[in-house]
């Protein structure tokens, strides 16, 4: 027997759940297929729990530095088990909210099985064969594990496993220097763990402009985080309960060997889309070289009845990107709309200090051969930064010299993740540098740094 629906969503994460609830609440007979806990990576293993851990570290570090503000405290310490329990309770609250949303919704069926395609409009999930007029793939992404020599012979953890730790390690080797690796380095280092980063690229956070990544790297080194770049891992082994990583310089196979040692090994070299078990070829759907589902500007696959959104299509690997994808897919799949993803997509990296950006980076502007100018200002120019005791960082704005339109902005410094929305709003409206210069910023706030922006090139 084939179960039949009007609308099917494969994946119950940020975008999948949102899409399924909207469709079912608007009268469409809907099925959502998700073998794991609902809420996806963001709620259960990503945005929410990791930022809860980073907030705990932020509070702890502020308490340690309270004397700088004339505040007397006793011995400042933390309880790792309670810290982790608070994080888990926040996740559980989110899961309970999802459960409430699913109640009294007769149009939505949830199937807790893995799904794979049998034909263009049919999938199998467990023992069930399910047909739908329209199908949306929202299977997200998972930790990427590269074939590192010896990795299969030693115990290691991923970013998912960090959330299940019951004891803080005294030392940890982090393989990778990208966004997730650097955020987790902040967490471990902030609680006193010795952190050793092994990055194969010439610099950590290499996707960012050099001035940004170099600035953050120097901040990390001041916090005693050991960042090693151009590292080639020759082999991993375990001795006396410790993990040993034997390395040399990736640029020279005959270079001197260096061995790093730590209690734990964390592999954080990026993420890869959850598409390997979908058997998309049965539905006439194409994957690119990175296993992303290929979609057009309407998020439609080569199969006109199937759409893909969120991390699995590689277009915007952020929870907020997935939410915006959901709006487009609902319009296009349910009402035959032609909504495209044209919104300017900001990002944030919750390092210490945090980084945020929108639009083009300087490297991207160069690649596009744009004749651009740069405005820059240091947070030390904002009185509020001195008041809160954090003057690190800067604002960098790119504009097209042809029409003075803002084409990109990057902020590294306190509250960068909130302040970046000033540029999101500007770039979605006039986007003219003169508009930014005319804006009045409240004194004393961190946003007031914008009034100190000066042309540097």
Please, what is the oligomeric state?
single chain
Low-confidence stretches: none
**Which strand-content bin applies to the residues?**
25-35%
- Output the CATH topology of the largest domain: FAD/NAD(P)-binding domain
DSSP summary: helix tally: 13
Secondary structure: number of strands: 22
The count of domains is: 3
Major sheet size, sense and barrel closure: 7 strands, mixed
CATH architecture descriptor of the largest domain: 3-Layer(bba) Sandwich
Rg (C-alpha, Å):
24 Å
Class from helix and strand fractions: alpha/beta
Main attributes of the structure:
FAD/NAD(P)-binding domain; 3 domains; Enolase-like, domain 1; seven-stranded mixed beta sheet; 22 strands; alpha/beta; six-stranded antiparallel beta sheet; 457 residues
Task: Please give a structural write-up.
With 457 residues, this protein is an alpha/beta fold. The chain has three domains: 2-143 and 272-335, FAD/NAD(P)-binding domain (3-Layer(bba) Sandwich), CATH 3.50.50.60; 151-269, FAD/NAD(P)-binding domain; 353-455, FAD/NAD-linked reductase, C-terminal dimerisation domain (Enolase-like, domain 1). 29% of the residues lie in helices and 25% in strands. The protein has 13 helices and 22 strands. It has helices spanning 14-25, 40-44, 47-64, 80-102, 159-162, 179-190, 210-222, 319-335, 362-367, 383-388, 416-419, 421-427, 433-438, and strands spanning 2-10, 30-33, 108-111, 115-119, 122-125, 128-137, 141-143, 171-175, 194-198, 226-228, 231-239, 242-249, 258-262, 264-267, 271-273, 306-308, 347-349, 355-359, 372-378, 394-400, 405-412, 454-455. Strands 1, 2, 3, 4, 5, 6 and 16 form a seven-stranded mixed beta sheet that branches. Strands 17-18-21-20-19-22 form a six-stranded antiparallel beta sheet. It has a four-stranded parallel beta sheet with strand order 10-9-8-14. Helix 7 (210-222) links the parallel strand 9 and strand 10 (226-228). The longest helix is centred in the first third of the chain and has 23 residues, at 80-102. The chain starts with a strand and ends with a strand. The mean pLDDT is 96.
């Amino acid at each position: 027997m084939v179960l039949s629906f009007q609308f099917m969503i494969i994946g119950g994460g940020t975008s999948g759940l949102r899409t399924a609830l909207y469709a079912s609440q608007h009268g469409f007979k809907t099925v959502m297929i998700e073998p794991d806990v609902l809420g996806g990576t963001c709620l259960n293993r990503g945005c929410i729990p990791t930022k809860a851990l980073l907030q705990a570290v932020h509070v702890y570090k502020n308490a340690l530095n309270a004397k700088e503000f004339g505040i007397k405290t006793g011995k400042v310490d933390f309880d790792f088990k309670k810290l982790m329990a608070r994080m888990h309770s926040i996740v559980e609250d989110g899961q309970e909210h999802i459960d409430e949303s699913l109640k009294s919704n007769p149009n939505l069926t949830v199937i807790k099985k893995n799904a794979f395609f049998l034909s263009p409009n049919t999938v199998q999930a467990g023992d069930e064969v399910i047909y739908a007029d329209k199908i949306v793939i929202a299977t997200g992404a998972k930790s990427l594990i590269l074939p590192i020599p010896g990795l299969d012979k030693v115990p290691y953890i991923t970013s998912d496993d960090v959330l299940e730790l019951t004891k803080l390690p005294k030392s940890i080797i982090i393989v990778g220097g990208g966004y997730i690796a650097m955020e987790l380095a902040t967490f471990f280092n902030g609680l006193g763990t010795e952190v050793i980063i092994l990055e194969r690229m010439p610099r950590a956070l290499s996707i960012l402009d050099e001035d940004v990544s170099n600035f953050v790297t120097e901040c990390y080194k001041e916090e005693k985080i050991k960042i090693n770049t151009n590292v080639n891992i020759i082999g991993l082994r375990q001795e006396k309960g410790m993990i040993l990583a034997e390395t040399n310089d990736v640029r020279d196979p005959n270079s001197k060997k260096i061995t790093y040692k730590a209690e734990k090994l964390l592999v954080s070299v990026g993420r890869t889309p959850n598409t390997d078990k979908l058997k998309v070829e049965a539905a006439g759907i194409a994957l690119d070289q990175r296993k992303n589902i290929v979609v057009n500007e309407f998020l439609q696959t080569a199969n006109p009845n199937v759409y893909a959104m969120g991390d699995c299509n590689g277009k915007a690997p952020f929870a907020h990107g997935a939410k915006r994808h959901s709006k487009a897919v609902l319009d296009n799949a349910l009402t035959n709309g032609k909504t495209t993803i044209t919104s300017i997509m900001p990002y944030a990296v919750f390092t210490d200090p945090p980084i945020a950006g929108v639009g083009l980076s300087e490297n991207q502007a160069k690649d596009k051969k744009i004749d651009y100018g740069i405005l820059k200002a240091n947070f030390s120019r904002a009185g509020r930064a001195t008041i809160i005791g954090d003057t690190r960082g800067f604002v960098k704005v790119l504009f097209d010299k042809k029409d003075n339109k803002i084409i990109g902005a990057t902020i590294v410094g306190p509250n960068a993740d909130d302040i970046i929305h000033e540029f999101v709003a500007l770039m979605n409206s006039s986007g003219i540098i003169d508009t930014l210069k005319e804006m009045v910023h409240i004194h004393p706030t961190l946003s007031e740094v914008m009034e100190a922006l000066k042309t540097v090139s």
